[in-house]
Structure formats: structure tokens, C-alpha cells
Amino acid sequence: MTELSFIHRFEPATDPSRPPLLLLHGTGGDENDLLGLGRMISPGSALLSPRGKILENGMPRFFRRLAEGVFDEDDVRFRANELAEFVAEARKEYGLQAPIAVGFSNGANIAAAMLMLRPDALAGAALLRAMVPLAQAPAVDLAGKRVLMISGAMDPIIPAENSKSLAASLSASGAAVQHEILPAGHNLSQTDLQLLVRWFGQ
Prior knowledge:
The protein is of the alpha/beta class. The protein is built from five helices and eleven strands; from the N terminus they run ββαβββββαβαββαβα.
């Protein structure tokens, strides 16, 4: 692990035709959490997996929140830019193309914020159980970027309207959004995995 601005894990590509993945864990996760998922959904991709710098009751996150579902939007902006700078560092260090973010929960929210604030940092994103990260979405051009959003219809944390609003906002900015709503809660299911494999195979 090279000394970059985030503690992270990196696995080099074994199939150069596959896009690099930026793996972004949920609250309480770390840089090891999504490596197995990354290997399953895009075999052979380079994997870049940072650990969130914010601690909430000892649990790593990518940005602060004021309460469940209430984000510190100034911190969201700061942390999204900080993470985009790390991606730029890692691309230079490891010789990577712009990655596709694969984020779960808090990791999906910071990935959505990066799309809105630093779109050049990402080639696209798979957002698992994402919420609107910024109440006022900035005007941004996401043309050419593919986004998969997978929401849970029974998710106790994310209101259905909120995830639909995020999908609509990203679509309005020009992203090619596929929004799937599963009969699931906040945790990931086998169907999430199947949808991810299919999406990365397209």
C-alpha cells in the first residue's frame, strides 16, 4: 500500500479490458469490505478501495451526518472533493483510467456527490442504497456516464421518493441511469449481485 491521502487497498487489473473500480464502503466498513464484491461483479478489474476518514462512534464513514438521513452538506462537499483528489493521486500512482464507483449506503452517497461535484473523477457509478447527498443538485454535465442505482422497496433508512429524486436528478444531468427497485431492505441481496454482474457485462 503506497502512502496516498487515504488508507486504502489496491489490487491491480488482471484483465486490462475491464474498467477499474472505486469501492466505497458503508458506515462501519473499511477498505477490505467490498473487495470480494468487486472481484465478483467485474472479474479482472483493478480495485481501488479507500477507507472513509470520518469516525462516527468509532465507525468509519465518508462524510459527517447530523442525524440518520440528515447530512452535513458542507462536509459532503469537502469530502467529495477530497476523495476526488485521492482518485487523481491513485490514477497517477497506479496508471488507471477513471474508475467506476461501486458504493454501498454511505459510500453510494459520497459517490453520488462526486458525480455532482467532480464528474471527471468517475467514469460512472453503481449506487447501492443511495440517497440524495445534496438538497440542491449543482448543474453538471454527466453525458456519457452510466449509473446503476439499486434501491430497496422496504429500506427503513431511505424513503422511496428520495431515491427516485436522486435517479431523476442524475438523469436530468445527462447520465444514462438504470434504477432498479428490489423487494429488499437496506442490506444487499443476491438479486443486487445479479444486477451488478449484468450491468458490468453490458
